[in-house]
Amino acid sequence: MFDILQVRKVMRNKRLCQYLIEKILNIKIADITYPDVEKTIDIRLDSKSVRLDVYVKDDTGRVFDIEMPCENEPNGGLTKRTRYYQAMIDMEILETGEDYDCLNPSYIIFICTFDAFGDGLPVYTFRNHCIEKEAIELGDEGTKLFLNCKGDDKALDPDIRAFLRYVDGKVAECARVSADYVTELGKKNCLL
Fold this sequence. Notes:
The protein has helices spanning 4-11, 14-25, 77-93, 158-167, 171-177, 179-189, and strands at residues 36-41, 50-57, 63-67, 106-112, 123-126, 142-148. It contains 6 helices and 6 strands. Helices cover 34% and strands 19% of the residues. It is an alpha/beta fold.
């Protein structure tokens, strides 16, 4: 089974980290800044700080936070953690006196070895929508994703599918699905 120390080790590799983000979000990134592992955001003395597992910015200013929670938290703790992380990341991005339109798009990605929502999906993506008319998106450019290692979908990108199997400890199955990316992950972790 993959753990957070292994995720941090892999994510220190700029190329693997960038490739994983591109595959998860189905976007192209020209370049990322070197990832911060265990980035701490501590805005005020009297508020809770956060320690982000992997914090990355790309060449356009988009921010990516990659987390690997050990377990699902009771009473919506995991989902509320994404809300708090989003707020802290926004406070980190926006300087005093800047307009709100200076907030960059941000993505909080949780790689879970459990199904956080119990619906069997391999990926759950959340954005703010209008309740009365779901087609209206708020447009705040905040996105939260939960990858579920226990979920499966044949239509999922082969590398992401293999990555999720790999994180779930199913290396042999991964190699049959998509050998290149998973083999490189294994080499970086000295697991294969």
